[in-house]
Protein backbone atom coordinates (compact mmCIF):
# COMPACT_ATOMS: atom_id res chain seq x y z
CA UNK A 1 0.00 0.00 0.00
CA UNK A 2 1.26 3.55 -0.69
CA UNK A 3 2.53 5.47 2.33
CA UNK A 4 0.21 7.86 4.12
CA UNK A 5 0.42 11.56 3.34
CA UNK A 6 -0.67 12.55 6.85
CA UNK A 7 1.47 15.13 8.63
CA UNK A 8 3.64 15.77 5.59
CA UNK A 9 4.46 19.24 4.27
CA UNK A 10 3.92 20.06 0.60
CA UNK A 11 4.64 23.13 -1.51
CA UNK A 12 2.48 23.42 -4.63
CA UNK A 13 3.58 26.10 -7.07
CA UNK A 14 0.91 28.11 -8.81
CA UNK A 15 -1.71 26.88 -6.37
CA UNK A 16 -3.78 30.01 -5.87
CA UNK A 17 -6.24 28.89 -8.52
CA UNK A 18 -7.27 26.26 -11.05
CA UNK A 19 -5.51 22.90 -11.10
CA UNK A 20 -2.72 23.82 -8.68
CA UNK A 21 -5.33 24.85 -6.13
CA UNK A 22 -7.22 21.58 -6.63
CA UNK A 23 -4.01 19.63 -5.98
CA UNK A 24 -3.25 21.66 -2.85
CA UNK A 25 -6.74 21.14 -1.42
CA UNK A 26 -6.64 17.45 -2.35
CA UNK A 27 -3.38 16.95 -0.47
CA UNK A 28 -4.77 18.79 2.56
CA UNK A 29 -7.79 16.49 2.54
CA UNK A 30 -5.33 13.61 2.96
CA UNK A 31 -3.72 15.20 6.00
CA UNK A 32 -0.90 17.20 4.43
CA UNK A 33 0.09 20.72 5.49
CA UNK A 34 0.35 22.84 2.36
CA UNK A 35 2.29 25.92 1.27
CA UNK A 36 0.32 27.83 -1.34
CA UNK A 37 2.65 29.54 -3.79
CA UNK A 38 1.39 32.34 -6.01
CA UNK A 39 2.84 35.02 -8.27
CA UNK A 40 0.02 37.58 -8.55
CA UNK A 41 -3.16 35.81 -7.36
CA UNK A 42 -2.87 36.90 -3.73
CA UNK A 43 -6.60 36.99 -2.96
CA UNK A 44 -7.13 33.52 -4.40
CA UNK A 45 -4.08 32.18 -2.54
CA UNK A 46 -5.34 33.49 0.80
CA UNK A 47 -8.73 31.95 0.09
CA UNK A 48 -7.04 28.59 -0.56
CA UNK A 49 -5.18 28.90 2.76
CA UNK A 50 -8.45 29.51 4.56
CA UNK A 51 -10.01 26.46 2.91
CA UNK A 52 -7.09 24.27 3.95
CA UNK A 53 -7.22 25.55 7.52
CA UNK A 54 -10.91 24.60 7.66
CA UNK A 55 -9.74 21.04 6.99
CA UNK A 56 -7.60 21.20 10.13
CA UNK A 57 -4.28 21.51 8.34
CA UNK A 58 -1.65 24.24 8.50
CA UNK A 59 -1.15 26.45 5.48
CA UNK A 60 0.53 29.68 4.44
CA UNK A 61 0.64 31.64 1.18
CA UNK A 62 4.03 32.67 -0.19
CA UNK A 63 4.60 34.98 -3.14
CA UNK A 64 7.42 34.58 -5.65
CA UNK A 65 7.98 35.15 -9.34
CA UNK A 66 9.51 31.81 -10.29
CA UNK A 67 11.00 33.25 -13.47
CA UNK A 68 13.24 35.40 -11.24
CA UNK A 69 15.65 32.74 -10.05
CA UNK A 70 17.07 34.93 -7.29
CA UNK A 71 13.72 34.73 -5.44
CA UNK A 72 13.71 30.95 -5.13
CA UNK A 73 16.15 30.42 -2.22
CA UNK A 74 14.12 32.87 -0.13
CA UNK A 75 10.93 30.98 -0.94
CA UNK A 76 12.28 27.71 0.44
CA UNK A 77 13.92 29.43 3.41
CA UNK A 78 10.46 30.70 4.37
CA UNK A 79 9.05 27.18 4.04
CA UNK A 80 11.71 25.83 6.38
CA UNK A 81 11.23 28.69 8.84
CA UNK A 82 7.46 28.11 8.95
CA UNK A 83 7.28 24.30 8.93
CA UNK A 84 10.78 23.04 9.66
CA UNK A 85 10.68 20.62 6.74
CA UNK A 86 9.48 19.92 3.22
CA UNK A 87 8.32 16.49 2.05
CA UNK A 88 6.63 17.11 -1.30
CA UNK A 89 7.29 19.65 -4.06
CA UNK A 90 4.64 19.87 -6.78
CA UNK A 91 5.77 22.00 -9.71
CA UNK A 92 2.41 22.87 -11.24
CA UNK A 93 2.94 26.57 -12.10
CA UNK A 94 3.00 27.04 -15.86
CA UNK A 95 1.75 29.15 -18.72
CA UNK A 96 0.13 28.03 -21.98
CA UNK A 97 1.33 30.38 -24.68
CA UNK A 98 -0.14 29.94 -28.15
CA UNK A 99 2.03 31.23 -30.99
CA UNK A 100 2.17 30.34 -34.66
CA UNK A 101 5.56 29.30 -36.03
CA UNK A 102 6.17 32.39 -38.15
CA UNK A 103 4.96 34.70 -35.38
CA UNK A 104 7.11 33.22 -32.61
CA UNK A 105 9.40 35.87 -31.15
CA UNK A 106 12.28 35.54 -28.72
CA UNK A 107 10.05 37.09 -26.05
CA UNK A 108 7.32 34.47 -26.56
CA UNK A 109 9.91 31.69 -26.62
CA UNK A 110 11.44 32.88 -23.35
CA UNK A 111 8.00 33.32 -21.80
CA UNK A 112 7.32 29.60 -22.28
CA UNK A 113 10.75 28.18 -21.51
CA UNK A 114 11.54 30.40 -18.53
CA UNK A 115 8.30 29.67 -16.67
CA UNK A 116 7.65 26.09 -17.71
CA UNK A 117 11.17 24.64 -17.67
CA UNK A 118 13.90 26.87 -16.26
CA UNK A 119 11.90 27.80 -13.16
CA UNK A 120 11.12 24.14 -12.47
CA UNK A 121 14.79 23.18 -12.57
CA UNK A 122 15.78 25.94 -10.16
CA UNK A 123 12.83 25.20 -7.83
CA UNK A 124 14.06 21.61 -7.63
CA UNK A 125 17.60 22.80 -7.01
CA UNK A 126 16.52 25.11 -4.19
CA UNK A 127 14.24 22.49 -2.62
CA UNK A 128 16.70 19.59 -2.83
CA UNK A 129 18.44 20.11 0.55
CA UNK A 130 15.12 20.05 2.40
CA UNK A 131 13.77 17.12 0.40
CA UNK A 132 16.93 15.09 0.97
CA UNK A 133 16.52 15.48 4.71
CA UNK A 134 12.94 14.22 4.59
CA UNK A 135 13.52 11.62 1.84
CA UNK A 136 10.79 13.41 -0.03
CA UNK A 137 9.32 13.56 -3.51
CA UNK A 138 9.07 15.93 -6.47
CA UNK A 139 6.15 15.80 -8.88
CA UNK A 140 6.61 17.88 -12.04
CA UNK A 141 3.82 18.82 -14.40
CA UNK A 142 4.44 18.04 -18.05
CA UNK A 143 1.47 17.61 -20.39
CA UNK A 144 0.67 15.63 -23.50
CA UNK A 145 1.89 18.52 -25.65
CA UNK A 146 5.37 17.42 -24.59
CA UNK A 147 4.67 13.97 -26.05
CA UNK A 148 2.55 14.69 -29.12
CA UNK A 149 3.93 18.08 -30.12
CA UNK A 150 1.38 20.75 -31.03
CA UNK A 151 1.77 23.09 -34.01
CA UNK A 152 0.75 26.51 -32.81
CA UNK A 153 2.25 25.76 -29.40
CA UNK A 154 5.83 24.88 -30.34
CA UNK A 155 7.69 26.62 -27.46
CA UNK A 156 5.12 25.24 -25.00
CA UNK A 157 5.49 21.70 -26.34
CA UNK A 158 9.27 21.95 -26.17
CA UNK A 159 9.12 23.23 -22.58
CA UNK A 160 6.97 20.27 -21.55
CA UNK A 161 9.15 17.77 -23.40
CA UNK A 162 12.00 19.31 -21.44
CA UNK A 163 10.12 18.62 -18.19
CA UNK A 164 10.01 14.93 -19.12
CA UNK A 165 13.77 14.75 -19.61
CA UNK A 166 14.44 16.96 -16.58
CA UNK A 167 12.41 14.52 -14.48
CA UNK A 168 14.49 11.58 -15.69
CA UNK A 169 17.77 13.41 -15.08
CA UNK A 170 16.80 14.58 -11.59
CA UNK A 171 15.54 11.12 -10.64
CA UNK A 172 19.13 9.91 -11.13
CA UNK A 173 20.77 13.01 -9.68
CA UNK A 174 18.74 13.10 -6.45
CA UNK A 175 18.48 9.35 -5.80
CA UNK A 176 18.30 7.59 -3.48
CA UNK A 177 17.02 10.25 -1.08
CA UNK A 178 14.51 12.02 -3.34
CA UNK A 179 12.09 10.48 -5.83
CA UNK A 180 11.28 12.56 -8.91
CA UNK A 181 8.32 11.84 -11.19
CA UNK A 182 6.08 13.74 -13.57
CA UNK A 183 2.45 13.84 -14.64
CA UNK A 184 1.41 14.48 -18.24
CA UNK A 185 -2.27 15.45 -18.16
CA UNK A 186 -4.54 15.55 -21.13
CA UNK A 187 -7.29 18.15 -21.24
CA UNK A 188 -8.44 18.85 -17.69
CA UNK A 189 -11.44 21.15 -17.70
CA UNK A 190 -12.46 23.40 -14.85
CA UNK A 191 -15.76 25.18 -14.18
CA UNK A 192 -16.09 28.09 -16.58
CA UNK A 193 -13.78 26.68 -19.28
CA UNK A 194 -15.00 26.95 -22.90
CA UNK A 195 -17.21 23.95 -23.68
CA UNK A 196 -15.40 23.35 -26.97
CA UNK A 197 -12.26 22.29 -25.07
CA UNK A 198 -14.11 19.34 -23.62
CA UNK A 199 -15.95 18.53 -26.85
CA UNK A 200 -12.75 18.47 -28.92
CA UNK A 201 -10.90 16.30 -26.43
CA UNK A 202 -13.74 13.80 -25.96
CA UNK A 203 -13.67 13.06 -29.70
CA UNK A 204 -10.00 12.03 -29.46
CA UNK A 205 -9.81 10.20 -26.12
CA UNK A 206 -10.72 6.48 -26.05
CA UNK A 207 -12.44 6.92 -22.68
CA UNK A 208 -14.70 9.56 -24.29
CA UNK A 209 -14.49 12.07 -21.49
CA UNK A 210 -12.36 14.99 -20.43
CA UNK A 211 -10.12 14.90 -17.38
CA UNK A 212 -11.25 16.33 -14.06
CA UNK A 213 -9.19 17.86 -11.25
CA UNK A 214 -9.79 14.78 -9.09
CA UNK A 215 -8.04 12.65 -11.70
CA UNK A 216 -4.90 14.74 -11.27
CA UNK A 217 -5.16 14.81 -7.47
CA UNK A 218 -5.26 11.01 -7.49
CA UNK A 219 -2.15 10.85 -9.67
CA UNK A 220 -0.23 13.35 -7.52
CA UNK A 221 -1.16 11.49 -4.35
CA UNK A 222 0.06 8.22 -5.82
CA UNK A 223 3.41 9.61 -6.96
CA UNK A 224 3.91 11.43 -3.65
CA UNK A 225 3.56 8.18 -1.74
CA UNK A 226 4.82 5.42 -4.06
CA UNK A 227 8.20 4.54 -2.54
CA UNK A 228 9.47 2.37 -5.42
CA UNK A 229 8.65 4.71 -8.31
CA UNK A 230 11.06 7.33 -9.68
CA UNK A 231 11.92 8.83 -13.04
CA UNK A 232 8.49 8.02 -14.47
CA UNK A 233 5.97 10.07 -16.42
CA UNK A 234 2.38 9.18 -15.54
CA UNK A 235 0.18 10.06 -18.52
CA UNK A 236 -3.33 10.98 -17.35
CA UNK A 237 -5.16 11.56 -20.60
CA UNK A 238 -7.99 9.06 -21.03
CA UNK A 239 -5.90 7.30 -23.69
CA UNK A 240 -5.49 10.40 -25.89
CA UNK A 241 -1.83 9.65 -26.69
CA UNK A 242 -2.51 6.08 -27.85
Protein architecture, described:
By secondary structure, the chain is of the alpha/beta class. The chain has a single domain, classed as NAD(P)-binding Rossmann-like Domain (Rossmann fold), CATH 3.40.50.720. Helices cover 47% and strands 14% of the residues. It has eight helices and seven strands; from the N terminus they run βαβαβαβαβααβααβ. The protein has helices at 18-29, 42-54, 72-83, 106-134, 145-148, 154-173, 195-204, 213-225; strands at 9-12, 33-38, 59-63, 88-91, 137-141, 179-185, 233-236. The chain has a seven-stranded parallel β-sheet, with helices on both faces. Strand 4, helix 4 and strand 5 form a beta-alpha-beta unit. The longest helix has 29 residues, at 106-134.
Helicity range of the residues? 40-55%
Q: Which structural class matches the secondary elements?
A: alpha/beta
Briefly, what CATH class? Answer: Alpha Beta
N- to C-terminal distance: 29 Å
Radius of gyration: 17 Å
Q: How does the major sheet shape up?
A: 7 strands, parallel
Q: What number is the mean pLDDT?
A: 94
Strand portion:
5-15%
Number of domains: 1
What is the CATH architecture term?
A: 3-Layer(aba) Sandwich
CATH domain topology = Rossmann fold
Stretches where pLDDT is under 50 for at least 5 consecutive residues are none
Say how many strands there are.
7
Strand order of the largest sheet: 3-2-1-4-5-6-7
Q: Could you state the CATH homologous superfamily?
A: NAD(P)-binding Rossmann-like Domain
